[in-house]
Structures are given as structure tokens and as C-alpha cells.
Amino acid sequence: MSKPSELLGLAPSLWRSLRLAYSAEPRLFVASFALTATAWIPTAIIALWLKLLADGAVGHRDTQIAAAAAGLAVSVALGWLLTTLSGRVDKRFRMRTTIAISAHVSELQAKVVGIEHHERPEYLDRLQLLRDNVFLLDHLYGAFMGLVGLVLMLAVTVGLLISINPILALLALFAVPAAASGSWRAGAEPLGRPLPGRRPGPRPGRHAPAAR
């Protein structure tokens, strides 16, 4: 049995989790990923239709105004439709993956030969952590898919800004501090580093022996 300190990195853990979800529900995984990732795109394109609508109104071009208004209506309706479908498919996908993850955790525990893992507190704590937080693992997929959708939305938005003036692409740099601080906070908490304003304290495991 591996030592408790032998943990997988972020990328291997994410890849293993995605592979587990795909093997459990391949169709729902693909459908949920596609809907969640593309639901943001119609919202980003609304800025383009507004620009065309304003240009048509200034230039008194009725055809362009009608086309921009129709495109704006289609983008709003498509965004609502994709968001609604994404929510329903994602809900069913999370229910199925919760069952698959629970079965996988039970299978991992049952495959261990011997009873050594039942006698060591560090392994019992990990198993208990998995059992108590299985419902959090299925939220990983929605968060990852939403992140991919936000990246696509950012790419479309930056592309629209570049089409107006390439120098406007520098506006994306203002999002770097917020993204960097969010990544630092997410990485600091699992590693046990205390955040500013928060006092560190001991977190004994449930199966740790009581202090004498």
C-alpha cells in the first residue's frame, strides 16, 4: 500500500476523474460538456449584434437594423435554451456520476488485500473523507466544464475587441489579478497554508488516536 504522502498532482487527478465520469456515462458526459461549454457563446455574441444595431441606426440602414435585431433575439433565445438544457442534463449527469463514484470508492476499498488499512488511522481518515465528500466530487465536472465555457466566452470577447482595434486586447490583462488571486486561494487551502486573517489550527482526523 502506498504511503499517505504519495498523492497525485492536479493534472493526473483531474484526468482520472474525467476518465471515470466518461467511462460511467459517456453520452451524458459529452452532452453535458458540449452544452455547458457552449452556453456562454451566445451571450458573448450579443455585443456584436448591439454594435451592428448601433451602426445601422446611425447610418439609417434598415436592413442592417433588422438583421441585427433578429440576431440579438436569436442569441438571447439560444442562450436561454442552452442554459436550460445544460442545467437539466448536468443535473442528471451529476446524479449518475455520484452513484458511479460511490461504487468506485467502495470497489477500491474492497480490493485492498488484508486488514492493514482498517488498522491505520491515516488510511481510515482518507476513506472516510472520500465517503463523506462524494457529493462534492460530482460538482468538479460542472465547475470544469463551466471554466471551459468561460474560456471560450473570453476568447470570443477578445476576438470581438480585436476586430474593433487590436490594442483593445490589452483589456484582458485586467482580469489577470482576479484570476491569479483566485488560483492562489484555491491552492492555499488544500495545502494547509493559512490565509490572511485566518488563524491556523490543528485538524485531527476522525480516526486519529486521542491524545493522552
Q: Indicate how many domains the architecture comprises.
A: 1
Calculate Rg over CA atoms: 24 Å
Shape: elongated
User: Care to count the β-strands?
Assistant: 0
Q: What do the pLDDT scores average to?
A: 75
Terminal-residue CA separation: 29 Å
Which residues sit in consecutive blocks of at least 5 with pLDDT less than 50?
1-5, 190-195, 197-205
Share of helix, binned = over 70%
Work out the helix count: 8
**Pairing-aware structural class of the strands and helices?**
mainly alpha
Please tell me about this protein's structure.
- With 212 residues, the protein is mostly helical.
- It has one domain.
- The protein contains eight helices and no strands.
- The protein has helices at 10-24, 26-38, 41-59, 62-111, 116-119, 121-132, 134-164, 176-188.
- Helix 1 crosses helix 2 (26-38) and helix 2 (26-38) runs antiparallel to helix 4 (62-111).
- It starts with 9 loop residues before the first helix and ends in a 24-residue tail after the last helix.
- The model is unreliable at 1-5, 190-195 and 197-205 (pLDDT under 50).
Summarize the structure.
With 212 residues, this protein is an all-alpha fold. It has one domain (11-188). It is built from eight helices and no strands.
